[in-house]
Amino acid sequence: MARIRSIKPEFFTSLTVASLLVETRLTFIGLWTHVDDEGRCVDDARLIKAAVWPLDDRLSTDVELDLKRLSESSLILRYKVGERSYLAVRGWGEHQRINRPTKSKIPPPPEAPEPPPTSETTPLPPVEIPGRSTPEPSHSEPSPQPHTQLTEDSLAERNREQGTGNREVPPSAERSTALAIVPAEPDTAQALIGEWIDHCRRRPPGQVIGQIGKQLKQMLAENIAPADIRRGLAAWHSKGLHPSALPSVVNELMNAAPAQARPSTTDQRVNAALELAARYAAEEAS
Q1: Cα angle at 58 between 86 and 47, to 5 degrees?
Q2: In CATH, what number is assigned to the domain containing residue 26?
Q3: How much is the pTM?
Q4: Higher pLDDT pick, 155 / 74
């Protein structure tokens, strides 16, 4: 049974949502009206297609792709209990205030791991921060995190993104092409994306953000150190390369041969004097 739900304005400026296709965003919104009062439903693309796209030509396979993208973006959690598949909208209790909620007939997830925190601060409507339901859901919006200043050669760490604004920098703002961020929260792909976007003159297109996000997630999944990824991201950003070149730049910096120490001028002169003395001694001996 479809239900009335609320949506916050921050949904439309969320970087996480902006990286998704428009159809996937609509499927996500439609899910809110389809899930029960605890944010759960049966994970079956055919049923969700019938509920969310009843009059459109979209196929259940299209909806399955939407669900996969939403899961990869940590907006929903897909899980199994026994042989049955279910899904839950992450952070449901924190962003939906429901009057007299009906107890869910669907079992909760066996485990509810939190998705990585991200680089922005305003919560996305019924998602973003998983598994932390509270008796009195808060609808207040936290103040934005401060951002550090750019430098040419330092690179550190900071965090948090899901569900907030477009941080476009005015064209008149002067920014360095190198990134340098001081860490504030755990390292995640979304955090790195947020840092990169914060230091762009204008907000990059959603497709580029999505490509960079996939590259960062893959490298973090391979246990590449976030510090190495940040160094590579800074170098890639300064060169203006294609997103597909990012892993190569990270690898180049990670595995670069250490520079050979160059002897000082004094050492060079002392060595030359010793060689000359040895040569004179050899001539006198002969």
Answers
A1: 30
A2: 1.10.10.10
A3: 0.41
A4: 74
